[in-house]
Amino acid sequence: MAANGLLTLGRVKLSDLIATDGVPSDSYKLSVSTLSQSLAQYSAAIIQFSSSDGALLRSGLDSARLYFHQRPSFPDAIQSDDSREWCRTSGYYADPQLWQETYDYRPGLTPPDEHSSSNSVEFLPPGALPDIFALLGRAARGILDAISFYLNLRSSPFAEILDNVPLRDREISSSVLSVCCHARPSFQGAHGQMGGLYEDDDHHVDKSLISLVKSDKAGLHIRDFNGRWVVVDGDLGPQEAIVFPGLALYQATAGYVNPALHRTDTSSGMQSNMCGRCSLTFKLMPKSMTNLSSTEMRAAGHGVESQFQLPVLVDDFMQRSYTTDYILNKHGYQGFGLSSSQDGSVMKPTMKRKKSNNSRCKPLPPSKRLRLEAQRVLKERVQDIADKKGIKLKFCNLKECESHVHDVDSPCANIRMEIGWPPGVPFVHPHDLPNKAKMGFLEAYEPGWTATQDLDMALAESGRGGSQHSDIM
After folding, report:
1. What segment(s) does the record annotate as region Disordered (predicted)?
2. What is the dihedral sign for C-alpha 234, 240, 246, 252?
3. Coil, strand, or helix at residue 454?
4. Cβ(214)–Cβ(203) under 8 Å?
5. pLDDT: which is higher, 394 or 93
């Protein structure tokens, strides 16, 4: 480890990580520095809550132990492998292969009184979940803002991809609070075997932006920068929890924040334990119909590699499977720097930046940028308007619709009027619109788009004109 590195996981008070207006205080800068350095070395850090918040987390764990202890030995709900359900999980389910039981609390979807339809009270959900969800949600957003400060991004750069606070009417939370139990003896006994040590390749990566974990027993291992597995919750205090970044943050920061590879040991001392290992895990997730984009990183002057150039729809991102080789290979690319000042109080980022010579990433052709922007606005704006009005979008053929745009009695006239489709633009999928029509579409649904994009496209055009052999990504 570097001489100026941390000897153990960094410990940071949550209260010191919450930003305030004005010039950042020394305690804030020191806390951000410690957090960032710990994430760089260990892919995790320890967050210290207040005494009252710590008591709330401990009561949640007590309630979780009682809840799972009362569950039957045989799981009555098996975890689904359908990746399309990533933002719809709610209630109890089990994964016998991992000897894990989970109760997911998802606001907007999980009924506040799930037991109300049952005559039995033995399956009351764990207590205080709404309060714990709110507490860890605030903490995760504060930590995300602290990472943004370290990366020199603007304030709250990820606000557009996060859930509304509070949720609006009929909205379902993308983020989730998972109450987990590993290796409950009665649950394991039903299958005739105990959970044991993991294999070398038995590790996972969350697809979250930020994950926060509070457990009642040690067992969470995370792979550090040197490839060693470190027990990160071995000496947690009663008011402390573990935080680590996920794959969505890795994508949104163009690879500058590495996701944590983690695994859970369910063998140590579990045989004599009645309740197994219980934990509370909060995952701060992006909204499904938004994009993970490197725009903010480019605006801050960071170099962006080719694989991060194009925005990725969150719903598609969450449904993809990522091999651990993909993640392990990228761990050689150090995002956070490990340098510090003389007194160690302020650490400046020493991140790789785009060089002006042979490492420069070529801009996308303007026509391709237009197409991608139009597809993004369709999914983020137009589809949302149609969903709220209960309209199913069924686009016309381009040739046929060229005559429809000026006809008030055309088959698509009512839909165009209901969703505010721009006049003169054929009602066809934006991907198939001519470039001029695409621009009219973008200007209608994304106010201010012209002012911020036209200059970039003009510069891109001039750059292509001066380099006839440039590659198209």
Report:
1. 344-366
2. negative
3. helix
4. no
5. 93
pTM: 0.70
96 CA to centre of own chain: 26
Query: Phi, psi (5° rounding) for residue 375?
Result: -65, -40
Query: How many other C-beta atoms lie within 10 A of the C-beta of residue 47?
Result: 23
Interval 441-445 mean pLDDT = 83
What residues does each domain of the chain span?
11-330, 366-466
In this prediction, residue 323 has a pLDDT band, given cuts at 50, 70 and 90, of low
Strands of the 240-245 sheet, one edge to the other: 11-13, 45-48, 240-245, 210-215, 277-284, 176-182, 100-105, 91-95
- Eight-state DSSP code of residue 80: P
Virtual CA dihedral for 80, 81, 83, 84, nearest 10 degrees? -40
Mean pLDDT value of segment 221-226: 93
pLDDT confidence tier of residue 90, bands split at 50, 70 and 90: very high
Which backbone phi and psi does 105 adopt, to 5 degrees?
-105, 115
- CA 64/CA 105 separation, integer angstroms: 12
- The pair of structure tokens assigned to 228 is 């060693």
pLDDT at position 61 over 90: yes
Q: Where are the beta strands (DSSP E) in 72-219?
A: 91-95, 100-105, 176-182, 210-215
Cβ atoms of 222 and 43 within 8 Å: the answer is yes
- At 339 the pLDDT is 43
Answer left, alpha or beta for residue 156, where phi above 0 means left and psi between -120 and 50 means alpha.
left
Distance spanning both ends of the chain, measured CA to CA: 38
Q: How far apart are CA 47 and CA 239, in angstroms?
A: 8
- 3-state DSSP assignment of residue 55: helix
Q: What does the buried/exposed string (b/e) look like for 424-440 if buried means 16 or more CB atoms within 10 Å of the residue's CB?
A: ebbbbebeebeeebbbe
Q: Which residues pair with 231 in a beta bridge?
A: 221
What is the CB-side half-sphere exposure of residue 251 using CA atoms within 13 A? 24
Contact 162/141 with Cβ under 8 angstroms? yes
Dist. CA 317–CA 247, nearest whole Å: 10
Assigned token pair, 138: 């605030």
CATH topology of domain 11-330: Jelly Rolls (2.60.120)
Q: Is the dihedral of CA 52, 54, 57, 58 positive or negative?
A: negative
Crossing angle of the two packed helices 129-150 and 26-42, in degrees rounded to 10? 90
Helix-, strand-, coil-residue percentages of the chain, each rounded to 5: 35, 15, 50
| Cα 312 from chain centroid (whole Å) | 13
Residue type for 151, please? L
Q: What is the CA radius of gyration of the chain?
A: 25
Q: How far apart are CA 401 and CA 395, in angstroms?
A: 9
